[in-house]
Every structure is written in structure tokens, then in C-alpha cells.
């Protein structure tokens, strides 16, 4: 059987398999296509991205920690790892090959396959492709069954967290021009913070929302704001119109008693020009080489604070090699054990320390730094961290990194 026919057989098998049975189908088709395979495990990352959890019925050993394990290293580094198997029950020359499962740049878990033979690396090309096929199949199947959602939660989510996680687009995505990742804490009891993105042919849309209040009321408020932003965005509105339409809807519901602080961005893929509306508190830090540049935008009214609020667009430019780190107010102003707030100094320090990490690891590094500063205390507010690595070369590098002239949005309503 040729490599192309093996991959086609895997793809055909997963396409025909019911959504809830993908792990068993992967096991069956791998054993059939690769006779050297003796065991297959499919592990998914939990909400905290601290451990990898095996699918029910596949492994009785329980979750595997990301840190300090070869399986975890495959997930973190997006690079396959080889782990020779030793022990009285192990066959000669057995090795577990761990391959990251990804879908369009988002890390979902790890495919761990036990193979026999003296050259386990010979299976890597096939297993890398099969893991990617599996990742795409999982993303399609995810909304058709609760099996995968159940696996990745180590304890029960609050209802507010359930609502909020369903709003999120995922943990990351990537394209030729960028790599993007976000993380939200506390994972199991979040209230109103949110991030959202959408990739298009010519631009990348991003929002970071710092909701007010706590619990189910905060989750419902954020759901309304994010839904309104998406509705306006999908209708073709620019970032100022998106903010205005969302603000009007939030105000109509809460009459100013509740509001959301939101950052709305649109990144032009051709030249790296970022159009922004800063309706509140999320902060942006630009890392260009060894230079840290806080992006200072004009703070405009939060969404829903007043009726008929109009917003103005500001612009700045990012260049190839730039990194943007965006954090919510719950992270930036979090009080630390030693007094004061997390603030710019700590954010710049962790940005420097994590400059060699993949974009997917940066939000986790920022959250970890925050938790260390808290000295073991629980978060008093939600914390969002988002990282954007920009790869595309700008057509004109003469524009400044700081916001340029403010542009008035059109009066048209989408």
C-alpha cells in the first residue's frame, strides 16, 4: 500500500465515522494501514492547557501532565517525540511516537501510537499527516457530540463558564501571515471576559472584551455584546460601526446599568495596518525586536454605557517579526501579593522572557506569571491574554508603530 493510498484510506474512514466514534476509528484504521502499530491513544488538552486527557476507554492511567513528559512536549512544541518503551510486558524495540493533533494552527491534543521495529522515525511522515487529518475531523465532529467536551474538563464548569467557553473561537489559529493564540482564566468559573477572532481573505478581525459584573449575569451581558459585534462584522461593518451597533444593543437592554469594555481590531493582511477602536480597558503591548512599545489608544466609551455612542477609528502599523500581546483589565490591574498591580512592568518582563516561545505558549506564560505574582491567591477577576505573531512583510515600513491620525467613522449604520 502506498503512502498516498494509506492517507486516503484514513481520510475516507474518518469522513464516514459517526462524530462520537472518531477515536475508535483512528485506532482501527491505523492498525489496518500500519501493521507495526500495536496501540493507539488519543489525548485532548484540558481547559487549563496543563494536562492531556485520554479519551474514555483508551487509557486507564489518567491525565498526562504537559510539563516533564514526552507526550506533553509533543503538544507544547508541535514536534513529534519518540519514547522507547521498557518493562517486563514491553515487546523488543517498541516505541511510543507522540504527534501533535492540530487543526488550522490550533493545538487540540496528541496522537500517541505504539509501534514496533528498529526505526520508529520511519513512521513519522505518515503519522504527522494522519494527526492533521484527525484534527480537522475532530473540529468538524466537536459540535455534534459532547464526548470531547466532557473529556477535556477535569471538573464541572459553572454555568457562566459554560456559556463563555461556547463563545470562544478556540485556543489559536494560524495562517501564512500570522500565528494567533489566546487563553482565559479562571477556566472553570469565568464570568464576563472574552476574546474573539475571524480570518478573512484580506484581513484578520480581533476583539478582546472585559465584561462587567460576575457569574451568569456577566456571561449573559458578554454574550449579547459579542453576538452583536459578530452580527455587525458579518454584515460588513467597519470596526467603528461594529462598536456602535453593539453599544446600542447593550444600552437598549441594560440602559447603562451594565456595559462592556472592548477592544475591536481589524488587521489588514496586505500591509499590517491595524484599524482599532478602544472602547475601554484591554491593553496592547507591541514587541519589535528587543523594543517594547505600549500601544496607547484613545480610550472611548465602553459599549452600552450611553445611548447613540459613536466611535472613531485609530490606526497603527505592525511589521514582519512584530509580536502583539493583548491583555484584559482583569490581568493588567490584578493586585499582587506584594501590593500594587500586575501592570506594564510585569507584562514587559514576561514578554521578554517568552520572546523565543511559540505564540501559542505566550498567553499561558503571561497567565503563569500573573499567578506567581498573586502568591497562590485566586484570581479576583477574569484574565484574558492574547498573542499575535505577525509574519507578513509590510509594503511600507515607514509608518510609525504608535497610533496614527484618528479617523472618523462613516455615519452609515449596518
UniProtKB/TrEMBL annotation:
UniProt KW keywords: Hydrolase
A Pfam family matched in the record: SpoIIE
Membrane-spanning ranges: none
Region (Disordered): 393-414
Domain PPM-type phosphatase: start-end pairs: 175-390
Name of the molecule in the record: PP2C family protein-serine/threonine phosphatase
